[in-house]
């Protein structure tokens, strides 16, 4: 319990100071598509996700700063220094992620206004009233298990392991922010903890492709597969055109990059910068799939979730398939030429910038 209090207070203190300094207010996102200038555009960091620069090493955690951060009756007891340091490091990580997002938004979307978002812009945001959480669903970044956690927090289920995949996604246990009246949306955006979990963009794309096109799928094969094969495969067989099965990764990327794509965008590969409107909603907590359980459990302790609730570590779709890793992602992208990789990077460029992911290939610019 002492360790939980340390985490909770460290997160609150740093989150509060960071938000106040940034002057966070709900603002409206520009309707124009963001296109990076052809030259002198800033590059994503070449270092790892958790480099010293992202941890704020230029402002070392001095004894005085630690005392200020932990000055609270909740942590005035003899919590172990190691636990304090771990909690503070995680809180500082959140501060650095928010600061990076704020800086990128200020540079690329300075015209974002102060009006409420539209219902469409919050249509992917789920509401958990008991813990006062808003969670934007990013497919292929742990969203199934996050929905399970929210259902347990709301009292809809006793355990995350009791919730089948389809129940988490299709049974409407969780309200969406878009279902509230404007005043309700504004109040929740102002006072609730706004949560976003992201994933390395190319890895998320490959994960979506493997899940939707390499495994049997009664929706994506006929709806997307048929259209993709018809448009991008020369001399396609009747069987392929009829079933939509067997889409190659290159064909899938051709579809993704086609401004006149034969079938619309899908949330499983839509850029997070568009799906969750991060510059507009200004998230309180930014987690990463690469540190999913650590980040998620830190958040759960910070919002005083039940002590026995931890983030699930199981995979319920294609459980025998190997998780999409950086090495698997490299293999898929090696099927593309340099021009195709560059265009794919341009497509996800804002995601790379906003969330501090390094360039996945050295020849990208």
How would you sum up this structure, described in words?
Strand 1 and strand 2 form a beta hairpin. This protein has helices at about 1-20, 65-70, 80-110, 145-155, 165-170, 180-190, 200-215, 220-230, 240-245, 250-255, 270-275, 280, 290-300, 325-335, 340-345, 350-355; strands at about 125-130, 135, 195-200, 285-290. Residues about 15-40, about 45-60 and about 65-75 have low confidence and may be disordered. The chain is built from 16 helices and 4 strands. The N and C termini lie far apart (about 50 Å).
How would you summarize this macromolecular structure in one to three sentences?
The protein has 365 residues and is mainly α. It has helices at residues 2-22, 63-69, 81-108, 143-154, 165-170, 182-191, 201-213, 220-232, 238-243, 249-257, 272-275, 278-281, 292-302, 326-333, 338-347, 349-354; strands spanning 125-128, 133-136, 193-198, 285-288.
What's the arrangement of secondary structure elements?
Blueprint: H1 2-22, H2 63-69, H3 81-108, E1 125-128, E2 133-136, H4 143-154, H5 165-170, H6 182-191, E3 193-198, H7 201-213, H8 220-232, H9 238-243, H10 249-257, H11 272-275, H12 278-281, E4 285-288, H13 292-302, H14 326-333, H15 338-347, H16 349-354
Parallel strand pairs: 2-3, 3-4
Antiparallel strand pairs: 1-2
Helix pairs in contact: 1-3, 1-13, 7-14, 8-10, 10-15
């Amino acid at each position: 319990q002492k360790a939980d209090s340390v985490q909770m207070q460290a997160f609150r203190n740093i989150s509060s100071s960071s938000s106040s300094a940034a002057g966070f207010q709900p603002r409206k996102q520009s309707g124009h598509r963001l296109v990076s200038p052809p030259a002198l555009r800033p590059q994503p960091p070449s270092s790892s996700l958790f480099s010293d620069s992202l941890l704020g090493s230029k402002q070392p955690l001095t004894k005085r700063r630690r005392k200020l951060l932990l000055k609270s009756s909740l942590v005035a007891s003899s919590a172990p220094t190691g636990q304090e340091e771990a909690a503070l490091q995680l809180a500082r990580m959140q501060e650095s992620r928010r600061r990076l997002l704020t800086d990128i938004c200020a540079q690329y979307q300075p015209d974002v206004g102060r009006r409420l978002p539209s219902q469409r812009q919050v249509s992917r945001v789920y509401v958990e009233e008991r813990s006062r959480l808003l969670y934007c669903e990013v497919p292929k970044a742990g969203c199934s298990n996050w929905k399970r956690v929210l259902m347990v927090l709301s009292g809809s289920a006793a355990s995350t392991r009791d919730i089948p995949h389809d129940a988490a996604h299709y049974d409407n246990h969780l309200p969406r922010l878009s279902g509230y009246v404007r005043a309700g949306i504004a109040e929740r955006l102002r006072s609730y903890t706004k949560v976003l979990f992201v994933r390395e963009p190319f890895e998320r794309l490959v994960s979506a492709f493997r899940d939707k096109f390499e495994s049997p799928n009664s929706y994506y094969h006929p709806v997307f597969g048929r259209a993709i094969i018809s448009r991008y495969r020369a001399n396609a067989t009747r069987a392929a055109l009829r079933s939509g099965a067997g889409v190659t990764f290159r064909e899938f990327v051709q579809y993704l990059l086609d401004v006149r794509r034969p079938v619309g965008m899908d949330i499983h590969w839509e850029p997070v910068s568009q799906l969750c409107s991060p510059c507009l909603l200004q998230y309180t907590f930014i987690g990463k799939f690469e540190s999913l359980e650590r980040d998620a459990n830190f958040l759960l302790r910070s919002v005083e979730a039940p002590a026995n609730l931890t983030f699930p570590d199981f995979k319920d779709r294609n459980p025998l398939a190997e998780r999409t890793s950086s090495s698997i992602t490299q293999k898929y992208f090696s099927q593309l030429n340099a021009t195709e990789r560059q265009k794919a990077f341009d497509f996800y460029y804002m995601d790379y910038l906003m969330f501090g992911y390094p360039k996945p290939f050295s020849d990208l610019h």
